[in-house]
Here is the input.
Amino acid sequence: MAAGARVVLLGPPGAGKGTQAKLLQDRFAARQISTGDILRKAVAEQTPLGKQASEYIRRGELVPDRLIIDLVADRLKEKDCETGFVLDGFPRTIAQAQSLEEILKKTGLALDCVLSVQVPHKLIVERLSGRRTCKGCGALYHVVFDPPKAAGICNGCGGELFQRDDDREETISNRLRVYDNQTAPLASYYRERGLLREIDGVGEVEAIGKRVVRALG
Ligand code: AMP
Here is the structure.
């Protein structure tokens, strides 16, 4: 992957998009933009956006396109995106994908690649229900597959680990349904544009990382 690359990570919740986006950010100068992280911060800070978004997130539904598209357009204008970006969790609908194309076109840019990370639904439920996030630095863990050294505490910063509300089992099935209905059609959308590359998202984080880097060529 060349510096300055513009990449979309596509895949169901729990496919490992966040983990791989962080690896790409560290390895290449491509800024991770996670719309989920931006929304959760807005909810925690009770901003007007956060107040509008919180109920959708809690139920595992998508936040309306009109709220998310302007947010991403503004974020992509920031200086740290000039050296490239990895979009993690956006676009999630065809309307969002079309808007992204328009946003980039205005600045004479285009996507380089859309990487689809494929993981069977059964494994996703296991991954999401055991996922824990650090309150301090956002590092990701899994209670079985990747536990912290001390239970409930981040190895890196010592922060407290928590379970996202929407990672509870009752919400996970709704998120997967929403993904199949609204987001999965993006694979054909990007395949038709010659941008789609698919990788197997099952296995160790490091092995998947190698597949990601290879696919980005
Ligand atoms: P994530 O962390 O990417 O799994 O996102 C968590 C939640 O934030 C999703 O279940 C949605 O409710 C909301 N969300 C994140 N990104 C988007 C998006 N691009 N469009 C609509 N809703 C989103």
